Structures are given as C-alpha cells and as structure tokens.
C-alpha cells in the first residue's frame, strides 16, 4: 500500500478474530489487533477482560482456539512449539510485573542468560550484558544477586535482559504494577526511550493511565474484545 507515492508499512504483528478459552471461561472472543513496526502500544481494560491472554497469544506463548496470529508476514500460530519458542528467545523480549529474574544468579548472569540460552559465546554474552548494564546505570550492581535490588532496579535489570537480544518486539505485562507511581513512570519512560533507540516495537499491558500515556496508541480490551477507546468515546 502507498500514500502519496510513499510505501506505508504493513502490520508487524496482528491478531485476527482470536478466540481463547480456559475451560468454560472464554477469555478472548474474536479479538483483533494490529501493531506496526516501531509502535509503542498500550493495552488497557478492566481486570479479567483478557489483556494478558491477548498478550500471550500475540507472543506465541498460547495458541488461539480460533483465529490467526501473524508476525512479520507469517502465521505465528501455525508454527511448531519449538519454532515458537525459538522466536520468543531470538526475536521477542519480555518484561513482567515482578521482573522474574533468577534470584540465585547475579545481575550480570540474568542479563547474559538469554544470549547464553541462544548459545552465544560466554565472553561475548557477558560483554553485551555489561554494555546494557552500563547503559542502564546498573554496572556497579552487576556482581550482586538480584534479591538485593530495589523494585525499580530489578525492573531495569529486566529491561536490560529483554533488550539484550535486540528483539523486534518487547511484550510487557504490567511492568510497573509492583512499583510506586513515580518509579513506575521512570521505568516506563526508560523502556520506551530505549525501545525507540533500538527500533523495537513495545506492547504493554497496564492498568495505569500514566504508563499508557507514554505509548503512541492505546487500545481497550473489554469482555475479550479489543476496542479503540477513542472510537468508543465517540459513540457514547
Ligand atoms: N489459567 C487460567 N485458568 C482459568 N481461567 C483463567 C486463567 N487465566 C485467566 N483466566 C480467566 O480468563 C479471563 C481473562 O484473564 P486475563 O488474565 O487475560 O485478563 P486480564 O485483563 O489480563 O486481567 P488482569 O488485569 O486482572 O490481569 C478471566 O476471566 C480470568 O479469570
């Protein structure tokens, strides 16, 4: 597609009419969403509306019961489990509410881990991890165990770990949910600015309007469906 003779990028990641149930609970009903490369998208909505389930489907963690997930021109939901996990390791990055760092390991080990799992050379993995820790002003903490970190520091380590593989998409599920609002805002601003520098797309599930305000666009999930908040405001 072109506008004024210039190519318009197609979506990088898309959910098309996705259904997903847990037993008898239908979490998603014909949920559709499309995200372009480099976009920072916030997914908001009431508790239990299906936000996390949608994020997990987009990231290839869950496969939909019906509907399609497209990533970079390919059907993600049709890939084998092994190919989807490889994609998650090499092309996607993840930041969760409680960081989910490995407490027995040091900060540097945690950041180097995705590279080591991808069979990078040890020296290179630790060099790259060190570069990210410096960028996030955490280099003094690199040999400490993650249990010694504050919530905000732990989330900065989680951001470094998510970015170390240079992912195309970062999936963040309530990344500031365990932080006070000021720390949460700083963590989100950091995530967005680093993602922009790296050209990564970010999809963030959040309850916090201030976190969503850092995004380029917001969508709402209600009763398992995606709605554009501005479109629904116009209808009201
Ligand atoms: N593992 C599970 N087993 C059974 N039901 C589940 C499971 N995970 C989610 N659900 C249900 O699916 C629906 C959607 O859940 P989901 O976690 O996607 O919503 P959410 O919008 O992310 O909620 P929250 O904001 O509270 O995290 C809810 O009714 C929830 O109770």
TrEMBL record:
GO molecular function, one term: ATP binding
Entries under Pfam families matching the protein: ABC_tran
Gene Ontology cellular-component annotations: membrane protein complex; plasma membrane
UniProt keyword annotation of Nucleotide-binding present: yes
Protein name, entry field: Putative ABC transport system ATP-binding protein
Taxonomic lineage from the root: Bacteria, Bacillati, Actinomycetota, Actinomycetes, Streptosporangiales
Every ABC transporter domain range: 13-235
InterPro entries listed in its UniProt record: AAA+_ATPase, ABC_transporter-like_ATP-bd, ABC_transporter-like_CS, ABC_transpr_LolD-like, MacB-like_ATP-bd, P-loop_NTPase
Domain of life: Bacteria
